[in-house]
Amino acid sequence: MSNLDIIRAWKDEEYRHSLSAEQQEQLPTNPAGLVELNDEDMSSP
């Protein structure tokens, strides 16, 4: 898998889900980490 494919998989959820299970297992962890915000975080000014 090329670096461009890896970056696209990190950025594009639809593309990531289109990869085979084997390809998804080969993806390195996104260096930005998992970003999840809860409702309280989203409503903070």
Topology:
Elements: H1 3-11, H2 13-18, H3 21-26, H4 39-43
User: Approximately how much beta-strand content do the residues carry?
Assistant: under 5%
The H-and-E topology, N to C, reads as HHHH
Q: Quick one: overall form? A: elongated
Domains (count)? 1
Helix content: 55-70%
Radius of gyration, whole Å: 13 Å
Strand tally, please? 0
Quote the average pLDDT.
88
- Largest beta-sheet details: none
Can you walk through the features of this model?
With 45 residues, the chain is mostly helical. 58% of the residues lie in helices and 0% in strands. It is elongated and about 40 Å long.
Question: What's the quick description here?
Answer:
With 45 residues, the chain is an all-alpha fold. 58% of the residues lie in helices and 0% in strands. It is built from four helices and no strands.
